[in-house]
Amino acid sequence: MAWVQIRINSTNEQAEQMSDFLTDIGAVSVTFMDSQDTPIFEPLPGETRLWGNTDVIALFDAETDMQEIVAQLSAEGHLNAQSAYKIEQIEDKDWEREWMDNFHPMQFGKRLWICPSWREIPDPHAVNVMLDPGLAFGTGTHPTTALCLEWLDGLDLQGKTVIDFGCGSGILAIAALKLGAKQAIGIDIDPQAILASRNNAEQNGVADRLQLFLSEDKPADLQADVVVANILAGPLKELYPIISQLVKPQGDLGLSGILESQSASVCQAYQASFDLEPVAVREEWCRITGLKR
């Protein structure tokens, strides 16, 4: 099936309303893309994070009268004489196959592989986590997720309890279990993340060792030997009292979702309770680790 696409230069304040309107008038999909070369931050679970200058890209059936679409956008105030937009035909492809071809097994550390279900496992003797892109964030492709997976791979998790704070897809909790943890606990603010984590744990045969809680439902006295939180710098600083309390004395803490330029402020927030290690950096993102005193 052939398609036609309209790309509209917008702002983060206008993009959500424009997206809703485009869907109402027949767009089969609407996506947001950063229109300048600015850092892309990972969203909190359940959050749509837009950039300061955002392109809204809407896909329509090729038979759609795009001039009528432009007229409707103009009538609703989404376009004006100064608005920049572009209409282009999209080559007909097997989009599902193309999407699947973009995901390959990836190795993290010495033992751990993350593998989509439709690919052959490269090393049957390795620690293999089967994970497909789905409802919630987290497939290992982002540098912050990779940094956390490599850190977990380097720990001795045998017999330990691990908390994945902001679990998303459950990738970190599941990896910890497959790396030898006795139990893992996933915590998130988004019910979709809880559902995705449970489904992924079942696919990997570790659901019986994974507990999942919405943030407001977690036990008050919950603690673990290892706590990993891959969210964002701002929430990590704000949640210091909660996250630090989850770590047992002499327990390990791993934090990511942090730009290198933000690392000093996050370290400052946690240094009162943790002996911090040198910050690990990858592609402008970083990971902060430490041992609780």
UniProtKB/TrEMBL annotation:
GO cellular component: cytosol
GO biological process: methylation
EC code(s) of this entry: 2.1.1.-
S-adenosyl-L-methionine recorded as keyword: yes
Identification of the protein by name: Ribosomal protein L11 methyltransferase
Cellular compartments annotated: Cytoplasm
Family matches, as InterPro entries: Ribosomal_L11_MeTrfase_PrmA, Ribosomal_PrmA_MeTrfase, SAM-dependent_MTases_sf
